[in-house]
Write a structure and sequence with these properties.
24% of the residues lie in helices and 23% in strands. The strands form three sheets. A five-stranded mixed β-barrel has the order 4-5-6-8-7. It has a three-stranded antiparallel β-sheet with strand order 9-11-10. It has a two-stranded antiparallel ribbon with strand order 2-3. By secondary structure, the chain is α+β, with helices and mostly antiparallel strands. Helix 5 (214-224) crosses helix 7 (248-260) and helix 6 (235-241) packs across helix 7 (248-260). The chain has seven helices and eleven strands.
Length: 279
């Protein structure tokens, strides 16, 4: 796909099959830099599958305001890539048009700082034999659990695409739907356990072998088996589901413990949580 400007997103989508298959693919920067540079409108392929929108987490190493865009150099430990924010994308939520109808210059979001982690959503672009990401949205990472979660998610998706769906620790096949709306299939799942690593909930049920109390295991089970919305589940909903078994204050403490141990992480705010085994 060619493209030197931030405009033309609609044209790009039309040229590459319309608005179908717009799933956001979690990636590492190395995965993007390993894709060969191309100067045509041919589909961009990763793991033998076309990709359109991608997301990754990294550290801002440099910020360069330019007349027509803002360029961020972002590194994630696997590589470094330029991320460009164009006025037409409104990635910072700016109002791009002035009162006289002229387009204003892009403005830098002060919450995006050098040497701080950010999450990027955008499209991989090629221009003059160079690659960059044209950002739809870039935001600061406020919970560092998101960094670990994204790395695990990127590995999980890559392994699923290249090796097929994982299997349960007990040996039976387990179908795990892809995408943000996947449902928990047969209990919680750990990418590390399924692909030969340690950890995970395994076939022994929630909390088995992890020194969890019955309360902590019950809380984790409710959260992991909830519909996997992108924002997770509200803690008050967990309290309601377990109201006949445990006190609300004890449930809150159990959630805090599960977060500190890496089994859960906060999403849109501190009242919502999601299981790290839910991808």
């Amino acid at each position: 796909m060619t493209g030197g400007g931030g405009g033309g997103v609609d044209d790009d989508n039309k040229a590459r099959g319309g608005y179908k298959n717009q799933t956001i693919r979690p990636v590492t920067i190395k995965q993007l830099t390993d894709i060969p540079v191309q100067e045509t409108d041919a589909p961009i392929m990763l793991d033998n599958e076309e990709i359109k929108q991608v997301t990754f987490v990294g550290i801002v190493r440099n910020i360069t305001p330019q007349p027509i865009n803002i360029n961020y150099s972002i590194e994630d430990g696997t590589g470094i890539i330029d991320v460009r924010v164009w006025p037409s994308h409104g990635a910072h939520g700016d109002n791009d048009m002035m009162d006289d109808g002229e387009r204003r210059n892009p403005t830098h979001d002060p919450s995006i700082e050098v040497d701080k982690y950010v999450r990027v959503y955008g499209d991989l672009k090629f221009f003059n034999s160079k690659r960059s990401v044209s950002a739809h949205k870039i935001r600061p990472v406020k919970d560092h659990n998101e960094i670990t979660y994204h790395g695990l998610e990127a590995v999980y998706v890559h392994l699923t695409k290249t090796r097929g769906p994982p299997s349960k620790a007990g040996g039976g096949a387990m179908s795990v739907p892809s995408g943000a709306n996947q449902q928990q299939a047969g209990g919680a799942y750990s990418a590390g356990a399924a692909y030969g690593g340690g950890g995970g909930y395994g076939a022994g049920g929630f909390g088995g072998g992890m020194n969890m109390s019955s309360l902590q295991a019950a809380v984790l089970e409710v959260i992991a088996q909830a519909p996997q919305e992108s924002h997770g589940i509200q803690i008050s909903s967990v309290q309601q589901k377990l109201t006949n078994r445990f006190q609300s204050t004890d449930i809150t403490k159990a959630v805090e413990w599960l977060i500190s141990e890496g089994h859960l992480y906060n999403t849109i705010d501190e009242s919502y949580v999601k299981s790290t085994g839910s991808f």
